Amino acid sequence: MSRHFGQRAIVIGAGIGGLSAAGALSSAFKEVVILERDALPDSAVSRAGVPQDRHPHLLLAGGLQALDSIFPGFEQDLANAGAVPVDVFKDVRYERPDVGVLPQRDCGTSLLCASRPQIEYTLRRKVVAIANVTLRSHSRVTEIAPAAIRPLVRFESDAGEVDAIEADLVVDASGRGAPTLGLLGALGWEQPHETVVGVDISYTTAVLRPEGTSSNWKNLVTLPDPSISAKAGLIIPLEGGRWFASISDHGATDRPKTWEEFLAAANQLNTPEIYNAICRLSPPDDLRHFVFDASRWRHFERLERLPRGILPVADSLCRFNPVYGQGMTVAAREAKLLREILDRVAGEADPIEALQAAFMSEVGALLQAPWNIGVNADFAYPTTRGERPERYEESRQFEAALFRAIVADPVVQRAFSDVLQLMQPFELLNEPDIRQRIEAHALMPNA
Ligand SMILES: Cc1cc2nc3c(=O)[nH]c(=O)nc-3n(C[C@H](O)[C@H](O)[C@H](O)COP(=O)(O)OP(=O)(O)OC[C@H]3O[C@@H](n4cnc5c(N)ncnc54)[C@H](O)[C@@H]3O)c2cc1C
After folding, report:
1. What is the mean pLDDT of the chain?
2. Distance between CA atoms of residues 182 and 408, nearest Å
3. 89 alpha carbon to ligand 1 midpoint, in Å?
4. C-alpha 331 – ligand 1 centre gap (Å)
5. Which residue in 129, 208, 311, 447 is deepest, having the highest Cβ count within 10 Å?
6. What's the pLDDT tens digit per position in 205-234?
7. Measured from the CB, is residue 171 less than 6 Å from ligand 1?
8. Could you give the CA distance from residue 143 to residue 177 in angstroms, rounded to a whole number?
9. CA distance 323 to 246
10. Which InterPro entries does the annotation name (predicted)?
């Protein structure tokens, strides 16, 4: 694609959302500048600006595919960095309270499991290798100044030095959308309506070395019956032959503070599988905690107008409950959408306006399915706050039948796997053949 979208695009934030957007934009602008407030390490280590990076970050197959299409060779680089291949569901022990363990059938999809710092570092190396992308660390954006034609982004260094750059397009991937919200405030324009679903999830994570253990799974998920317990457990491999073991607790007020308390919490999960897998391992160096209060969709896409050249993306636009592992994948898929739109609108008289309009009108559909998957599951917990989605009871009944069908029918399991991994739209489960297979199980008594 020729670079006739303009001289410069600025991306605020070098998280997964910002890095993927920068890659998508690089062929359309003469220059792409990423402004990041953190120091960016030259290795795969945690950093202050993304405190969640010390917890498991599952990159779904749809995200891996999207990143590999924007950055050819990304998947290979991640594998070379030690990411662990996991075949869905062959290597996954997925335990549910209603149907038990899902069959470990091969559904034809592979993931790569790695730590968030490793995923981000691999991506960052891809981005900085693009000749016209500049990544400026220690650059905290303080405002996007209102401007008639080209937005002006002001930022400051750690030493307090202030600078400003003009751009044709500003992508807000700062995680909270503060620069865009500030700009709307400065202009006196309408702020986006927010859909908020309060979950108050407390995460406790241990990094473990699973020496000497053997099992028929690489990834283990234990879900509770939400009417009895709010504790879910997860084991996921990461580079360096290690495991993340996490316990999440909906609406929790307390959390395990010692390894003994962590083991006690693991022992309260719906099955003993996680406890048995970790109880004889050496204790971790520390326990990591995170509290996630609410999923939050800021409906920028519903606003009648957005300032010219401003595009909020990824968590700035919609922040998902992390237990469903969707945030990075959705961010990568938004970047892929951005790139597809760039191709489509390149010939328009005002391509910046066309890009903004098309992205904002199409991104809602991309967000809706992962949002529904998470929110429908969240409302099974009595402590969840917010407005239940429309036709909630119907979707719960559909889900109950779906899981019974998954156990019995490999075709349904494969379709579910593709939808869960955000590779296929949710409508796949409503296609006549699949729907019929699922409905056949709606009538059967719960096993
Ligand atoms: C506990 C937890 C676990 C998670 N697990 C998963 C998972 O398993 N799978 C998954 O896909 N997702 C997971 N997520 C979500 C995932 O972290 C994000 O959705 C994803 O990284 C996309 O975020 P982002 O790039 O929009 O924002 P972030 O990753 O938050 O990055 C924002 C960046 O912007 C920078 N920044 C912020 N303000 C400024 C400013 N003013 N100026 C300059 N720079 C700025 C920050 O330093 C940061 O680098 C999890 C989240 C949490 C909280």
Report:
1. 95
2. 52
3. 27
4. 10
5. 311
6. 999 999 876 789 999 999 999 999 999 999
7. no
8. 11
9. 10
10. FAD-bd, FAD/NAD-bd_sf
What's the pLDDT score for residue 1? 53
Over the stretch 88-124, which tens digit does the pLDDT of each residue have? 999 999 999 999 999 999 999 999 999 999 999 999 9
Which of 33, 34, 36, 141 is the pocket-test mutation for ligand 1 (most atoms within 8 Å of CB)? 36
Rounded to an integer, the average pLDDT of 30-49 is: 96
Q: What's the 16 CA to ligand 1 centre distance in angstroms? A: 7
pLDDT in tens, 147-165: 878 999 999 998 889 999 9
- Domains of the chain (ranges; CATH) run 6-84+113-195+295-377 (3.50.50.60), 196-293 (3.30.70.2450), 392-439 (no CATH)
Angle between helix 392-408 and helix 432-439 axes, rounded to 10 deg = 90
CB 422 within 8 A of CB 333: yes
Question: Contact, 249 vs 266, CB < 8 A?
Answer: no
> In angstroms, what is the span from residue 76 Cα to ligand 1's centroid?
23
pLDDT value of position 182: 98
Q: Is 14 in the pocket of ligand 1 (CB under 6 A)?
A: yes
Interatomic CA distance for residues 410 and 444, integer angstroms: 18
CA of 152 to the centre of ligand 1 (A): 24
CA-51 nearest atom, ligand 1: 53
* Per-residue confidence (pLDDT) for residue 383, from 0 to 100: 94
What digits encode the pLDDT tens for the residues 226-269?
A: 999 999 999 999 999 999 999 999 987 789 999 999 999 999 99
> Which class for 352: exposed (0-12), middle (13-18), buried (19 or more C-beta within 10 A)?
buried
Position 184 confidence tier, pLDDT thresholds 50, 70, 90: very high
